[in-house]
Write a structure and sequence with these properties.
Length: 269
């Protein structure tokens, strides 16, 4: 069968979007998601996004990383599908229902309340998630935040100088993180600005990570390093993150449709 797709990105973090509401699709598997995401023999993307009907929201969204593994949340993808929905949408994910709205030239997403307890990250054993007594080479005493998926955040003098392509996979797969983890290295430039690079579990180095920006901002705010609204600069561009008095995180940034096309499902099954 021939299947329609939409290629989108948020700050270079790119997605292939399939809509099972418009066209009934066979069951998505890890192998098919991985094949479609392959940049050499597939369409190519960081994440494959599958939209489906929902009884609890406007529609449901499933997220498959580049390696085919399904994950709970993706902030940039949420903005992208919010754009497809016209800006205003409620989107059911395994991390909860996320709300999007138009905000100037971008899309804002209510990312919900961050989870900060060690067993909500989750970690392998109890510890302080604001300053964890652990380290990997020169990366030490990170914070941990779950914003629908698990993140560990290291604050460093120069995030660009960290060999994240080497340390990222080591930390991602450390037994301390039973569900693996996204690895963030951040430099606080002033009380309104953070510079960030992310090693995303199941993806690798990415040009942008919306949940990583949210987790990093929350960690910096908890440590008193920044104000409650900051701009997070990633390699692909900037996101605006605010953490309200109601403890809910709002992320604002651009989303872009790149092109549309189709493929034959059986070629990847």
């Amino acid at each position: 069968m021939r299947v329609e797709f939409i290629k989108m990105h948020g700050l270079g973090n790119d997605f292939v979007v399939l809509d099972s509401r418009a066209q009934a699709l066979p069951t998505m598997t890890r192998a098919i998601a991985r094949a479609l995401a392959d940049r050499h023999t597939g369409i190519g993307c960081d994440q494959l996004i599958l939209l489906a009907p929902s009884d609890n929201a406007d529609f449901a969204m499933r997220i498959f990383n580049h390696d085919g593994g399904e994950v709970e949340a993706c902030g940039n993808a949420t903005r992208a599908v919010g754009l497809l929905a016209g800006g205003e949408a409620s989107i059911e994910t395994t991390a909860g229902i996320l709300l999007t709205r138009k905000n100037g030239t971008g899309i804002s997403v209510d990312m919900g309340v961050p989870r900060l307890e060690w067993d909500d990250i989750p970690l392998g054993y109890p510890m302080d998630t604001l300053s964890m007594p652990v380290g990997w080479e020169n990366l030490e005493r990170p914070a941990a935040v779950n914003v629908g998926n698990p993140h560990v955040i290291f604050f460093v003098e120069d995030s660009d100088a960290v060999l994240l392509e080497e340390l990222g996979p080591i930390i991602e797969h450390d037994p301390l993180f039973p569900e693996r983890v996204n690895v963030n290295v951040a430099t606080v430039e002033n009380r309104q600005t953070i510079r960030l690079r992310v090693w995303e579990r199941g993806v690798g180095l990415t040009r942008a990570c919306g949940t990583g920006a949210c987790a990093t901002a929350v960690a910096a705010m908890r440590r008193g390093l920044v104000e409650r609204e900051v701009t997070v600069h990633l390699p692909g561009g900037a996101l605006r993150i605010s953490w309200g008095d109601d403890q809910r995180i709002t992320m604002t940034g651009p989303a872009t449709e790149s092109f549309r096309g189709s493929f034959v499902w059986e070629d990847f099954a």
